[in-house]
């Protein structure tokens, strides 16, 4: 693994720059805004059945985009987590796409990506959500990304903060959406068969890469497997499904909000202090 350079960008300056940027937006509240996100991880292993175990995964690359359901993009952000990427080199060796790591060095040097700690990345995402009034976030195979984000924030805060997203956030999953919309299209089956994109057991592929190949009619497309670049194709899947105006499941969870009662005012204050790192 190459030696990791450290590009010092202080948390306060990052969050201040984001606040200044958000204050410059004229936000049309009539639009339905969604935050599309993706992560790249290390410390993921396979269980005894060969399935990927993400329960201990840690995020070293987090990208997201603020979009609306009509196909417009407002914000794109790409962060490299200094807590993992810079300080946990031995864990980075377990990164699933570890061979891409030299690319991150170049991107950090030219400013394409920003190096920040877990706290700053989470605060930046929450700031975007609050500015645009976002209550829905979206990812492809969202269960994986939500799990590793929760694992990362718990590891970084010693479990003072247990969940990445604010209480009440609804998680959408483009994998579920595509199964209800794209998988039912005869043209998708034909596309997969013609270009040998079926799974080993003969099922239709659910990967974002193959769905995007179908949407763009480009069977040679290769997914980047980096945070923001994957977001850019996942939002296309979201928009494509929305344009079909077909019944579909959006939510990752059947019951999108926890069944427990909303937090009391005291609980809200405690959660706020924990998010701010005071507790």
Structure commentary:
The protein has helices spanning 11-23, 82-85, 89-92, 101-110, 118-132, 142-157, 174-180, 186-194, 208-216, 227-243, 265-275, and strands spanning 33-42, 45-46, 52-53, 58-68, 73-81, 114-116, 136-139, 170-173. It is an alpha/beta fold. The strands form two sheets. A six-stranded mixed sheet has the order 6-5-4-1-7-8, sandwiched between helices. A two-stranded antiparallel sheet has the order 2-3. It is built from eleven helices and eight strands. Helix 1 (11-23) runs parallel beside helix 5 and helix 9 packs across helix 10 (227-243). The model has no long low-confidence stretch (mean pLDDT 87).
Topology:
Elements: H1 11-23, E1 33-42, E2 45-46, E3 52-53, E4 58-68, E5 73-81, H2 82-85, H3 89-92, H4 101-110, E6 114-116, H5 118-132, E7 136-139, H6 142-157, E8 170-173, H7 174-180, H8 186-194, H9 208-216, H10 227-243, H11 265-275
Parallel strand pairs: 1-7, 5-6, 7-8
Antiparallel strand pairs: 1-4, 2-3, 4-5
Helix pairs in contact: 1-5, 9-10
């Amino acid at each position: 693994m190459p030696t990791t350079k450290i590009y010092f960008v202080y948390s306060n300056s990052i969050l201040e720059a984001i606040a200044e940027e958000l204050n410059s937006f004229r936000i049309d509240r009539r639009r339905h805004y969604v935050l599309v996100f993706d992560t790249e991880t290390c410390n993921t292993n396979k269980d005894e059945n060969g399935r990927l175990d993400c329960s201990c995964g840690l995020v070293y690359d987090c990208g997201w985009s603020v979009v609306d359901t009509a196909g417009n993009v407002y914000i794109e952000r790409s962060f490299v987590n200094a807590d993992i990427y810079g300080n946990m080199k031995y864990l980075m060796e377990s990164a699933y796409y570890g061979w891409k790591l030299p690319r991150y060095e170049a991107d950090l040097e030219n400013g394409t990506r920003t190096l920040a700690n877990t706290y700053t990345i989470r605060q930046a995402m929450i700031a975007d959500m609050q500015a645009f009034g976002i209550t829905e976030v979206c990812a492809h195979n969202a269960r994986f990304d939500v799990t590793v984000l929760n694992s990362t924030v718990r590891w970084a805060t010693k479990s003072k903060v247990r969940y990445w997203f604010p209480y009440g956030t609804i998680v959408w999953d483009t994998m579920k959406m595509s199964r209800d919309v794209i998988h039912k299209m005869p043209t998708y089956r034909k596309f997969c068969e013609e270009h040998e994109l079926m799974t080993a057991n003969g099922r239709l592929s659910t990967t974002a890469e193959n769905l995007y190949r179908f949407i763009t009619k480009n069977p040679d497309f290769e997914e980047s497997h980096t945070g923001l670049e994957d977001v850019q194709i996942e939002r296309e899947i979201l928009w494509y499904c929305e344009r079909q105006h077909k019944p579909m499941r959006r939510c990752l969870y059947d019951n999108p909000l926890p069944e427990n009662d909303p937090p009391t005012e005291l609980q809200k204050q405690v959660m706020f202090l924990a998010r701010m790192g005071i507790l």
